[in-house]
Design a protein that fits this description.
Phosphorylase Kinase, domain 1; 10 strands; 11 helices; 2 domains; alpha+beta; 41% helix; 3-stranded antiparallel sheet
Length: 311
């Protein structure tokens, strides 16, 4: 039997098209149904059964009333090609290019929705098997520092990031844990013509400190400072807590340290992308002499918000 015929409901499929996008090991297909619906089909390696089953169960718990469009589970199982997951297709243009065609006020407004949607996702509980956060993240930072120092490619400000991490580990004490999307940034978002926001690619979902989910906001800031600033303001819906920005820098520093190491297997182009990101990070924090990034203040000004910060 062909693996295609082993998918429950495949008789409803009218058209299937491969989708070449993303960094995961999954193969992805756009599926048009005979009744006009559009779904996404993901094929994962067979050895990922327990992980994918856990992911699918979590997808079933995503909030129904959310500030962003989310993929909805439609089917899950095994076939000869691996593990299949069927999800509703989230419409819209990729957010990064879409943002460039909008006014700063519109970008900020979409950022507000992205922040609110993230807060709604974080209201879900952490997975039952989540390890204690402080010990877990300290071990992760230790590994990233070792990887950075073993890497033959260095970037300006790297040692300052290591120093910041070593001096601010105490910020992890007492941090709560909740559900995490795992890769929350504009590269995993869509924007429709009527300016609705979509969030996709939940395959890296995890548990952890909700504020760690901002560690990839540097991608949003590079695309649109107004959108990134809106993400922060929309998440808190009021004054930004004093503890947020120092902890944000800790999480960004940790993520940046291992970025070049991660990029090397993907080629010189990705290495250069991460080196440029390191330069942007150094500039945003003025050589790491400040904890509130310049893009936050700039984004709020561009969007017409009063004052430079949300405090």
């Amino acid at each position: 039997m062909d693996w295609w015929e082993q998918i429950d409901g495949q008789g409803r499929f009218a058209r299937v098209e491969a989708l070449e996008k993303g960094w995961s090991r999954d193969r992805k297909f756009i599926v048009d149904l005979k009744d006009g619906q559009r779904w996404l089909l993901r094929l994962s390696p067979a050895d990922q059964w327990e992980r994918k089953k856990k992911e699918y169960a979590a997808m079933e718990r995503l909030p129904q009333d959310c500030a962003a469009l989310l993929p909805r589970p439609k089917g899950f199982g095994r076939c000869d090609a691996g593990i299949y997951t069927l999800l509703s297709f989230v419409p819209g243009q990729d957010a990064e290019p879409a943002l460039r065609g909008l006014t700063p006020a519109q970008q900020y407004g979409l950022g507000l929705r992205a922040g609110l949607a993230l807060r709604q996702l974080h209201a879900l509980p952490a997975f039952a098997d989540a390890k204690p956060w402080e010990a877990r993240f300290n071990a992760k930072m230790d590994a990233k520092i070792r990887a950075y120092r073993d890497c033959p490619i260095r970037f300006r400000g790297g040692e300052r990031l290591v120093e910041y991490i070593q001096d601010h580990r105490t910020l992890l004490r007492g941090r709560p844990q909740g559900f995490q999307h795992g890769d929350y940034h504009c590269g995993n978002m869509t924007v429709t013509q009527d300016l609705r926001l979509g969030v996709v690619d939940f395959n890296r979902m995890d548990s952890g400190d909700p504020w760690e989910e901002f560690n990839r906001i540097v991608w949003c800031a590079a695309a649109s400072p107004a959108f990134a600033a809106g993400r922060v303001d929309g998440y808190f819906d009021g004054p930004v807590p004093e503890a947020f920005f120092p902890l944000l820098l800790l999480y960004i520093a940790s993520n940046q340290l291992s970025s070049v190491v991660w990029a090397i297997p993907f080629g010189e182009g990705e290495v250069q992308t991460m080196l440029r990101q390191a330069e942007q990070l150094n500039a945003a924090y003025e050589g790491f002499t400040r904890t509130v990034p310049l893009w936050y203040e700039q984004g709020r000004r561009l969007a017409g918000c009063e004052g430079g910060t949300g405090n």
